[in-house]
């Protein structure tokens, strides 16, 4: 029955979309607008993640992220500083963390403190009354111009923004899902192949009652998009020895094209 239920959940009703719009508004407010206030010298990964999670709760988030995958346990999400974002976890997602301990690869470390010259990778889930949105933002703490890898960081981040915007432009009724993936990957810069999306298997995923709804924006999904479907688009690149860069927002497919529920990808912002 799983495939039948997934099909029934693909097109969201006005009631469902109202809840996802509210979740998206909370997501945008906390990660785009409030997060810089909490990104300060000496804050730990875990403290930052929990502070942002609390801000979402105060605004009406239901406080949990539900997944179909058995290894998709999550509540707070994660904050990763620098190379911590490259730590592999059991979860099949591009971003990583050492977690609170070896048994809990989520949230972040209570002992890894923020220093200047670090990327800050934030993937904190949000949802309202059972319906989720997905969003990731990346900040740079310090003066990026002084970083010896500044050109590499900027180029990879800007390529992620390009890929998200290109993918969103193709989220139109009638488009075959796997063709979206193929068209975008034709524009993908192969220099990032080894660090892209855990092997480059997908560009995003449907979302609703769980974070990882089917279908994914990937090869093998031959269905066509219809108005009312919702997808999280999340191109992300791992930079060895540096950290994770990338963007993620949640988009509603409409007759007039994709409409973001969580805001648009931003230029890489430095917090000094």
Description:
The protein has six helices and 13 strands. It is 30% helix and 19% strand. The longest helix has 25 residues, at 14-38. The protein has helices spanning 2-10, 14-38, 45-58, 150-169, 177-186, 197-200, and strands at residues 78-81, 118-123, 126-128, 131-133, 137-141, 204-206, 213-216, 230-233, 236-239, 243-246, 249-254, 257-260, 269-271. The chain is an alpha+beta fold. The mean pLDDT is 94. The strands form four sheets. Strands 7-6-8-11-12 form a five-stranded antiparallel β-sheet, with helices on one face. A four-stranded mixed β-sheet has the order 1-2-5-13.
Q: Which terms would index this structure?
A:
272 residues, alpha+beta, Creatine Amidinohydrolase, five-stranded antiparallel sheet, four-stranded mixed sheet
